[in-house]
Design brief:
With about 350 residues, this protein is α+β, with helices and mostly antiparallel strands. It is about 50% helix and about 5% strand. It contains 14 helices and 6 strands. Strands 3-5-4-6 form a 4-stranded antiparallel β-sheet. Strands 1-2 form a two-stranded antiparallel sheet. The protein is elongated, with a radius of gyration of 32 Å. About 10% of the residues have low confidence.
């Protein structure tokens, strides 16, 4: 037989404990309490929203501030490289995350790390730029701007930075055409503006005029020929050697020294590579200078840096050479391997 009374599943009566004892809550009291609770909830919600908006505004102002192009959190000396999800960590460490978190902004101020960062920027510009996140792409452009500004101020390393800008511009020309394929993050107008900045930076580098310092003593041409040749042997780029030979006829004759170009070839290239590109003159001598530029077009140069990023294979910490990392080993140097810029990028291609 069905139950004809009040539905037993309905909520019971509301009781409130007072000083005089328990009393039933009237409909008016219930409505007042609901209105107060709803007002408090709305007030808390508005406060939380205002806090979120203000926090986001501060973060946005920090990102867009002309005086601090690189956000403040890009100052870490080392990071943990995790290649899989664990209970303690979720997700993977990507190239964009490493590029954001490591202290590349301060690294370009260090002469030991400058060439390393420039080479890394060049490798990313060639093939890895679409793999970066939107924040990492913006951080890339900010660091590049600081690199250009440093070169403009110091008037040094002009040629490699011009080559970097040219490589980046050629890559962006192809990537901007594929904006609909999600290869770059952001509006196309933003990237067009960045490409215009690259052309402007390139023009500024072309306009650099290095003033000859006032002679205060002995110059290179005043040194004996043996010392001049010894200094030339310290140059690792054949183009620098050619430019030095154009200063005066005396240096020009020394810059044609066959032994000088032979050592340069043996420094950058292996014996097998040299044997494949042998060039012999009419007199039966090896043309080391011509072989050098021919080998340069076929093979990459040997890379050597004063300071590099290191990876601890025991605790999987990626850090700069002079940075102490929290490794539990008694001798952490035995677990440390030096990473070239190419090795750094390959570390995240898993």
């Amino acid at each position: 037989m069905p139950f004809l009374g009040q539905d037993w599943r309905s909520p019971g009566q509301n009781w409130v404990k007072t000083e005089e004892g328990w009393k039933k809550r009237t409909a008016e009291d219930k409505n007042n309490n609901v209105s107060v609770e709803s007002f408090c909830n709305k007030e808390n919600l508005l406060l939380s929203l205002s806090y979120d908006v203000s926090a986001k505004k501060r973060k946005k102002d920090l990102m867009n501030n002309n005086d601090s192009k690189v956000p403040y959190f890009h100052r870490e000396k080392w990071i943990y490289v995790h290649k899989g999800s664990t209970k303690e960590r979720h997700g993977y460490c990507t190239l964009g995350e490493a590029f954001n978190r490591l202290d590349f902004s301060s690294a370009i101020k260090d002469t030991r790390r400058f060439n390393y960062v420039v080479r890394l920027l060049e490798l990313i510009a060639k093939s890895q730029l679409p793999s970066l996140s939107g924040v990492a792409q913006k951080n890339y452009m900010n660091i590049l701007e600081r690199v250009v500004q440093k070169v403009l101020d110091d008037q040094q390393n002009v040629r490699p930075i011009k080559e970097l800008l040219q490589t980046l511009y050629v890559s962006l020309c192809g990537l901007v055409q594929d904006m609909g394929k999600s290869v770059l993050v952001g509006n196309i107008n933003t990237w067009v503006h960045r490409m215009e900045n690259i052309l402007q930076w390139h023009q500024q580098l072309n306009n650099i005029q290095i003033n000859r310092p006032t002679s205060t003593g002995m110059t290179l041409t005043d040194l004996p020929s043996s010392l001049q040749l010894n200094i030339m042997q310290r140059l690792t780029d054949g183009r620098d050697l050619v430019c030095l030979g154009q200063v005066c006829p005396e240096l020009g004759s020394l810059a044609e020294d066959r032994l000088l170009w032979k050592k340069l070839c043996q420094y950058h290239f292996t014996d097998r590579q040299i044997r494949k590109r042998l060039m012999v003159s009419e007199k039966g001598h090896l043309e080391w200078k011509k072989m050098y530029f021919k080998l340069s077009r076929c093979y990459p140069h040997r890379e050597q840096y004063s300071d590099t990023l290191h990876l601890c294979t025991l605790c999987h910490i990626l850090f700069w050479k002079d940075t102490n990392h929290p490794c539990p080993a008694n001798n952490p140097e035995s677990y440390t391997t030096s990473l070239s810029p190419q090795d750094f990028i390959s570390l995240f291609n898993f």
